[in-house]
Amino acid sequence: MAETKKNIKRTGGRKSSSARPSSLPRVTVKSKKKPTRKEMRDMPQWLHILIAALITGAIFFFAYHLFFKQTIFRFAVCEGTKAYQACMPQGYATYGIDISRHQGRINWDRLQKENSPEAPISFVYIKATEGKNYRDPEFGTNWKESKEHGFIRGAYHYFTGKSSGEEQADMYIRNVKLESGDLPPMVDIEEKPADKAAFIEELKKFILKLEAHYGVKPIIYSYTKYHNRYLKDEFFKDYDLWVAHYYVKRPDVKRDWKMWQFTDIGRIPGIKERTDINVLNGGEEELQKLLIK
């Protein structure tokens, strides 16, 4: 009898799901039915065509912007001089490259001996520093070897928003000793700023400090879209522009430019990795004017 009571107590306290009050409404969730094949077949023909056109357009849009836009000019017929497995833009005769640790250890002897007679490399810009505390590990070697092998050299700094313009200028000045015959300092600006106004102010401080120290105006480097969005301040118009725009016949920038980085796929003798190639607007005479006296 006691066991029977215990069982009643154990089971009697739990309500069965079937004991739900009948007064409460049942909630049912209807699943959204997919169109049947018959319903799809019964759609108007114009709607089929519209859907197919939209899908095809989307595929071509993404394919163009992700692949073909960047490569279509690589396969275009070269109308000018072809050198270093790249098509040289027409109307220019003074060429240069820019290098950093990404090009690895360079065979300067081979670069000097196999310099193309059709498009000879005259100048080399070498990455020196970045931010307030980074020095490119290949800078010392490249700086020394480029001059010893007869190339006009320049040193550039990659500007960031992580430290002040003065701190970055100090970093460049500590590491770069420019001599007569060298090219002016160059500042590479590609980083999208979180605060545009603050970023531009620090960039101005960097440029002005380098100008005061070396006695020459630095060159500003950026790609076309970045320049058109961030560097249209009147301040920057007093400085020569080095613009990057690949696989086009002319850079799309609404101001005069001094140098144009027209490709990033050059195959340069003595350099294992692909290398940027540039032209100088104005030729050899303009190159000589740029040099530090």
Category from helices, strands and their pairing: alpha/beta
Q: Record the strand order, biggest sheet.
A: 3-4-6-7-8-9-10-11
**Which superfamily, in CATH terms, is the homologous superfamily of the largest domain?**
Glycosidases
Arithmetic mean of pLDDT: 86
Count of folded domains: 2
Low-confidence stretches: 1-22
Annotation field: number of helices: 9
A few lines on this structure:
The chain has helices at 2-12, 37-41, 45-71, 108-113, 139-148, 165-175, 196-214, 224-230, 283-290; strands spanning 82-83, 86-87, 95-99, 121-130, 134-135, 152-158, 186-188, 219-223, 241-244, 259-266, 275-280.
Structure, explained:
This protein has 293 residues and is an alpha/beta fold. It has 2 domains: 38-73; 79-290, TIM Barrel (Alpha-Beta Barrel), CATH 3.20.20.80. 35% of the residues lie in helices and 18% in strands. The strands form 2 sheets. An 8-stranded mixed barrel has the order 3-4-6-7-8-9-10-11, surrounded by 4 helices. Strands 1-2 form a two-stranded antiparallel ribbon. Strand 7, helix 7 and strand 8 form a beta-alpha-beta unit. It is globular, with a radius of gyration of 32 Å. Mean pLDDT is 86; it is low at 1-22.
